[in-house]
Amino acid sequence: MKAVVCHDFGPLTDLKVEEIAIPEIKPEQVLIEVEAAGVNFPDALLVQGLYQIQPETPFTPGCEVAGKVVKVGDRVTHLTPGQRVVGVCQIGGYAEQVAINAAQVMPLPDFIPSEEAAALVTAHATAHHALKQRAQLQAGETLVVTGAAGGTGLAAVQIGKAMGARVIAVCSSAQKLELAKQHGADEGINYTEEDLKETVKSLTDGNGADVVYECVGGDSFDAMSRAMAWGGRLLVVGFASGQIPRLPVNLTLVKGYSVVGVFWGVFTQKQPDVFASNMKELMHWYQQEQVKVVIDKRFSLDEATQALQYMTDRKVKGKVILTM
Which domains are delineated in the chain? Predict the structure, then answer.
């Protein structure tokens, strides 16, 4: 089968598309014929050796797929060959077939196309877990979302509105802000033209943000660490800017807020039942059109390097996917 292979950590341009063996499945796994795979920022970090975890090389990147079950392991009881599914796989998704632990695979309802399903899982499920379990976001609270036009940022805007929050989107251009507002943002801040901290303070009558979904890092994180409300929750989701910030912890003391890490991939492994429950709610919201998948661009498997480069250049408005 064809797959994208990373032989050594390094530039995205070092990735190769090669013929490799179809993976053998373990008793608790299923083999999936991939129809579409989501492209995510952690995939690029993983290939470059910059992510929190580093798999043994060679490996195939890709953490979310949608397709059909080809084969099931002896211990798998809730899935059958031929069934449409969506799955989370940490690595291995940029391939024509992938073996995944069955606990992280779920049946795909007919109302969700495979391309949208592959784009729904990581971005929306990360935002859902972050806002529901980690921040415990309440209706009526003010949620600030940085990088609000990207895949996971746009998902956080939608889910924040579904949970009843007032949402302030932070973006780098008027075009991106307009997209965020189309998906539910109540207000927007163009951080290239406005002082981020002072504008958040102004929009909240000096109180600051109850919850911040922070996926940019660098200067964005620094500004938001100074614009939190008393009892607020500053969610550490990612570092799209490439800069991992340092937190003056005295700010958390004098402002009485919490800094909360969000590592969705590990959450799916440690709490699979909660993950499954979250996905049911997320798919219900999708069916009710409270959340929508915005696919910016589609690339072929052979164009995986271009897809990752497009995303790391921070040009994306929504999600990027690979189609087989």
Answer: 2-108+294-323 (3.90.180.10), 124-264 (3.40.50.720)
